[in-house]
Design brief:
single chain, 4 helices, alpha+beta, globular
Length: 158
């Protein structure tokens, strides 16, 4: 059966959060001074707010009605500073594919749906943050045409 991408529904919190937890665990193990192992990762109250906010969306990828991926999208407007170009862009706050189905083209299909969603909202760019330890994700995003535009650096003082 083909993968279907659609808007998340109110009763889909648990399967979306289960995929988020897989990613959160990976981040907590790789960068423990920043990320914690928690459950749920997304508070239910925030999930419900997203479902009713026109500038936010959660898209889900389904295989035979099973949620196997999600993307949390947000339309942003650049700040009105004279030094910054005025622009509308969509930010992917979070995106994940269930580990058991990674490498099967689902992430690519979900990303294409994110692009379409952003274009429908007149976004000029699609942006996300990826952590340096996650070379698999970096390679994936680069294969989709994304480019690094800045780098956040850190120095431990402990």
């Amino acid at each position: 059966m083909p993968i279907i991408i659609e808007k998340a529904k109110a009763d889909e919190f648990e399967p979306i959060n289960a995929i988020m937890e897989e990613g959160q665990l990976e981040h907590a193990e790789a960068v423990p001074h920043i990320f914690r192992k928690v459950s749920p990762v997304m508070p239910r109250v925030f999930f419900e707010e997203v479902l009713h906010d026109e500038k936010l969306e959660i898209l889900v990828a389904k295989d035979n009605e099973e949620i196997v991926g999600f993307a949390l999208l947000r339309v942003n407007q650049s700040p009105g500073y004279p030094s910054i170009q005025n622009r509308v862009y969509t930010y992917i706050d979070d995106i994940g594919i269930a580990k058991k189905v990674q490498g099967k083209g689902i992430g690519r299909k979900l990303f294409e749906a994110c692009k379409k969603w952003a274009q429908e909202r007149q976004s000029e760019q699609l942006e996300l943050t990826v952590w340096e330890f996650n070379q698999k994700a970096i390679s994936f995003y680069e294969s989709l045409g994304m480019e690094t535009i800045n780098r956040k650096m850190s120095l431990s003082l402990k």
